[in-house]
Design goal:
The complex is a heterotrimer of chains A (311), B (343) and C (317). Helix content of chain A is 74%, strand content 0%. With 311 residues, chain A is an all-alpha fold. Chain A contains 15 helices and no strands. Chain C has a domain at 1-99 and 213-220 and 228-266 and 274-317: Rossmann fold, CATH 3.40.50. In chain C, the strands form two sheets. Chain C has a six-stranded mixed sheet with strand order 6-7-8-3-9-10, with helices on both faces. Chain C has a four-stranded antiparallel sheet with strand order 2-1-4-5, covered by helices on one side. In chain C, strand 1 (6-18) and strand 2 form a beta hairpin. Chain C is globular and about 65 Å long. Classes of the chains: A mainly alpha (311), B mainly alpha (343), C alpha/beta (317).
Chain lengths: 311, 343, 317
Amino acid sequence: MSASADVRAVLSEKSLVQRLSSGTRGTVRALLRNKAGFLGFLGVMFFIILTTLGPLVIPYEGDPRLDRLRPGARSLFAPPSVEHPLGLDVKGRDVLSHIVHGGGPLILTALEAGILTTIVAVALGAAAGLLGGFIDQIISAASNFILTIPQFPLLLVLATIVTFDNRLGMALLLAVLNWPTLMRAVRAQVMSLKSRDYVEAAFALDLGLWHITTREVLPNMISYIVVNMIFTIRSAMYFIIALMFLGLVPLTEPDWGMMIFIGKQQGSLSNPEAAWMLLAPVLAIALFQLSLVLFTRSLEEVFNPRLRQGV
Amino acid sequence: MRKLIRSYTFRTVVQGLITIWAVMTFTFFLIRLMPGNPAQIKIDEYVDRYGMSEDQARQQVATLFNYDPDQPVFEQYVDYLSDLVRFDLGRSLTSTETPVAEQILRFLPWTLFSVGLALLVAFSLGVLVGLAMAYWRGGLLDNVMTVFASVIYAIPDYIIALLLIMVAGVQLKLIPVGELYGGSTQGIEPGFTVEYILDLLKHAFLPVFTYVLATIGGWMLTMKSSTISTLGEDYITVARARGLPERRLLTAYVGRNAMLPLMTRLAISIGFVVGGSAIIETLFLYPGLGRNLVLAIGLRDYTTMQGIFLVIAISVVVSNILADLLYGWLDPRVRLGGDKGTE
Amino acid sequence: MADGSVVLSVEDISITYTTQRGIVQAVSNVSFDLHAGETLALIGESGCGKSTIVLGLIGLLPKTGKITTGKVTYRRRDGRLIDVLGLNKEQMRQFLWNECSMVFQGALNSLNPVLKISSMIYDTARAHGMRADEAKKRALSLFEKVRLDPLRVFNSYPHELSGGMRQRVLLATALLLRPQVVIMDEPTTAVDILTQRSIIKVLKQLREELNFSVIFISHDLAVAAEIADTVATMYAGEIIEKGPVSEVFYRPRHAYTLGLLEAAPRLSTGAEELMSIPGSPPDLIDPPKGCKFHMRCRFVTDECKTTKPPLQASSPT
């Protein structure tokens, strides 16, 4: 009857579809509104294009190029020039080619870690929040335990145990360390949403737990989840590079982290000529991380209709 | 007795001890899951470096180590635990005959000094600037500092360290980076002399400056948003209507309330001091506990790793308790939750 | 009222807010006089500008608010006249609480949670050059007058007091420096009905003993009728009717006042008689011409839409 129609109206009003149905134009406008956020968006786009399309244009130089030793020079290092916009590394290889080819694997692993973490955290958070009781206690205790141990020392140990033949192993490891924060948020949201009117309405309509979680609870916190995922991607990247930096994971080229490691090993930290080999990946990492953080601001506006209307 | 068991303090201490034991146990087994063991690494070293035969090396190592890789792990655990309750952390497996406790006491002060100093500087500066940003919201300071804080907050600490070395040190030659590595200059007698203390500060400069830069943005932004929400509270308007001078308003009314949520975070970040310093200490060759941990992991020095993880677990637990106490002390509203027995 | 001297004179005050949608005319050309010992009730729906007026008087408008016209004159005890709007920041700081204090709505949130009541008293006293021991003595005697346990309250934190106790602490604090004018912004809305009664009682008694003037802001007609000597009804930023309490309440001349009276529950009439005013207040960014109430008025004439007709006596049934 009309009561049930009311309930349905409330439900559909809150649905994600409705939220995003203000159309792509609305999304674009929301993206543009926050200037810093838009800058972040451009930055992320830039790096994605650079690392996906770049390799098609710029060939990878993996082998030493001793022939590039300039007469009278003590090393193969070279500052930027017309042929090599980012200079040459310790083996005389083009730094730009390493930047272009070395970002993809890193970003991909971080992305995998972000997605995995989100899946694990959402699943566990929803389970803990909806089922409650014993399962909730176990999950909560595990998350408290993980949050007690500082992540980095633990990762140092774990990194030697899990072998990194494939990047998925690394991503999984990072997911194991990173899920508690988002899990807690999802759990808290599920608990509080459980008591709100429209979820009660959904219960009344007998829509079932699964439906409630996927249709009502998660869409309501999509903004938080996405922003959290971006931050997980960021911290995954931080950890991966840190491990490479300390030489604790197998050395594979090309990779931004490996460029730093090799650069550091070759003493380029104290050699002014060699700075370019290091500066390029350092700046790439710094800029990519900065872009990610800034991008979250735009994402918040895109996903949060209340912010979108502005005041 | 029943009162004691129910008391808040008692429960907190027991919970803390259980957490420490759990972390200790977890890391104990985790560490022994790592591929390779300290004896093997030493044996390989003897074979490679001194050209010993495998058997010779094995015998040599057996006399050096009181570690038997073939002993069942669970027996090792029981042994370790029984030593631990007598406050004996065992001996380092690699720099033989050095007790782990002694090793930790040697390295911990460096970490506590550098990270503690950085935390203090970053927190006080960040809180002051954040307060000012919120108070003069939309002003020049706010605009400039918001951009600065957002940028610096987004960049990983080791990237900041590398940029410091490369740009400020090597390229611009603003900082004599080469002289600043390590914990102190060799040849300067340790002691309470001006020369030694200045030398300590000089060598701590790079790691401290890096930590400060890496964390200050977060403090500023958090304090700013906390202050903005405090400024909107009724009691601020009411205090203003009572004609209180701005300075009193800013300190006891705005500042103190805005700082409450930050104090908990401060206490908790103290607990992460030891673990968070590994990369920066390694990069600057600073003789702290974090760098020691990285070295111990490389050598599979089980007892040293175990000892350091224990220190980490203790510091996290203690700082969490500290956060509780601090919050109760600063916010009278939760003070009642402390010892219900006395009220 | 009997003594007739005007303590606070408000002439032709207008206040605007700048918003993204445009300029809001929150208060337009409001004038009133407050006499020594008088209690003036400003009544109206929320958003009618009654709180904005008093925030303007004490210089605490938000940054987006601006006083565009008008003059506020305050007469000190020594007879000197003060141009309140012309005070600089420091003079205004001195003026507040010494001459004119305020009791805000929302007692729960009006006290700094991390300071004891004593600190709040000392802070206020110090800001105005009152000695600490004198402040304590005065505060304790005021706490006694508002029926609080003086020493216990003095040494308490706000969270240790109930809502009604906090409201009484605020009332006592408002009188700490013996001001001539006390502004009360909905002082009884956040508390339950029994507390409300006792606060009104305490207030009446204090007024008798200490002889201060009150501007009492409320949307609660019953409370206003009980405490006020004079009533001013506000609608859409204007005072539309003003007079002695008996006249305004028993012979309202403006249709809006009549509507408010009919919308208020009264023991004498009973609930079945309650009527609400249809519609909602006008948009103050683009206010209507003529009488701002004409869209909702049941006595509307063509004249109302272009000019403001003069008030005429009515006789409510």
